[in-house]
Amino acid sequence: QSSVPSLISEPDSVMLVPAGDHYTMMDFAIAYFREAQSMQGLNGISAEKKSAAALVQHTKVPIQESLLRYADSELNELATKNFRTLMQFMGDQSKLKNQNEAECIYEILQLCKEKESLHDEVYCQVIKQVTHNPNQESVLRGWLLLNLLTGYFLPSNILMPYATKFLQLASSDPSSTHHDIAKICQSNLRKNFMYGGRRRLPFPVEIEALLKGRGARRLVILMPGGMEYLTRVKTFTVAKELLQEICEQMGAGEQEEIQEFVLFAIRNKTVRPIRSEEYLHDYLLEDKLVTVTLRRLIWRTPLHFENRIYTDVHYGQMLWDYLNGKILLSRSKEMEMQVGILAMLQHWAKTEQQNSDPSREELKEYTPKTLQSSISPQALQSYVGMLLRSRQPFQPVDAKIQFIEHVMKLPFFGYNIYFVERVSDNTIPVPCFCGVNKEEIIVVDGTTQVCQTIP
Fold first, then answer.
1. How far apart are CA 319 and CA 343, in angstroms?
2. CB 324 within 8 A of CB 368
3. How much is the pLDDT for 9?
4. Residue where a domain terminates, one of 212, 234, 259
5. Is the peptide bond before 431 cis (omega within 30 degrees of 0)?
6. Are residues 255 and 348 in the same domain?
7. Are 83 and 157 in the same domain?
8. Does residue 90 fall inside a structural domain?
């Protein structure tokens, strides 16, 4: 164990792949397989290596004992039972009555979930059955299972360098029919090492799709402003990868800015942020009732407007927040002026409205719902009309940028605002608003005065 290379160099590092000819599965078998231990020294080194090589190669008959030695007889029994299930799934043995392939996979993954001490055993069994297996269909199924194993469960620190080396050798052989899936397994293992693997076992429908060669699922991400982003997520796609993909399409490629966006999973009225290291399929349930949306949550890096999608996404998010009372305005004489300027910019942001005055109904749509009862429609129409007559209209994209820049100067911009109906502290007036950002929580009363700040 002391000769196993360190798997971590820096916090964000990937696993190290052992160099040279060491750490082959045959080396592992000689050191750790139950049968190899009993053969050592019997027939000389060359015969011993030949016998050890057979231990990590395909067999047509089920094993009678676990490959690795276990003191616990139950683990030994579970290991031999798992090997039979593996052979049934791969087609090396007949399936039981009413047993299908998806059930075989689920049974193997469930065993790994329940018995962490069997992870190495199951890895070794699958690697054994895909090595020098003459049946290509059987090999393909074995690699499909290895694809799932590497994404869900890590081998122990002892087996890790040997398993990593096995995948490296398999992926670097272009003549092999499975070098592509070996590369996927390498990627899965690396992600599993960094992010901890998927939490939920796959649903039957996901397993069936994988068996039919469909390793990706179509997903629509709802973007601010009513836009949709269509993508395909793979079995082990993490949120960080999808965020990077979307942000690059928007022209936001810097890591610092990407980290300011968050994906949310919404089901009925439950909203959950998906952390960047979480696997998307842990949220995408079988019933397809989960919606995934994108929002910018932090506003530290400067905005830039060279990309049209980027501008539309930011305008769409700010406009929705503003109209739904999520961006508070100070209740003063200035409030009506702010509402008027922002109404004018919304009007110009519509392509077809460049040269017309907004109707009273349109002005109502341009006003935050929380302020509609406290602003005079006649006064607002008069003020907006004066603004329109005294200014040269902007093109829609420029009007959107002006709207964004104007909103960013408002005193409560950058906070996520929540309406509060009840508070246990009597000193805080209710109803009130609670604002949260990276630095602090603020409590804002009905007249939009900050009455408490919590760092």
1. 11
2. yes
3. 31
4. 212
5. yes
6. no
7. yes
8. yes
Say what the pTM is: 0.86
Number of domain units in the chain: 4
Query: Is residue 16 a contact partner of residue 5, using CB atoms and an 8 Å limit?
Result: yes
User: Which structure tokens are listed for 153?
Assistant: 């469960």
One-letter amino acid at 68 equals L
pLDDT digit string (tens) for 91-121?
998 887 778 899 999 999 999 999 999 999 9
Domain holding 255, by residue range, is 216-296
Other C-beta atoms within 10 Å of 432: how many?
A: 19
Q: What is the pLDDT of residues 318-328, one digit of tens each?
A: 999 999 999 99
Is the C-alpha dihedral spanning 17, 18, 20, 21 positive or negative? negative
Q: Which of 388, 409, 430 is the last residue of a domain?
A: 409
Look up tokens 């110009």; give the residue: 348
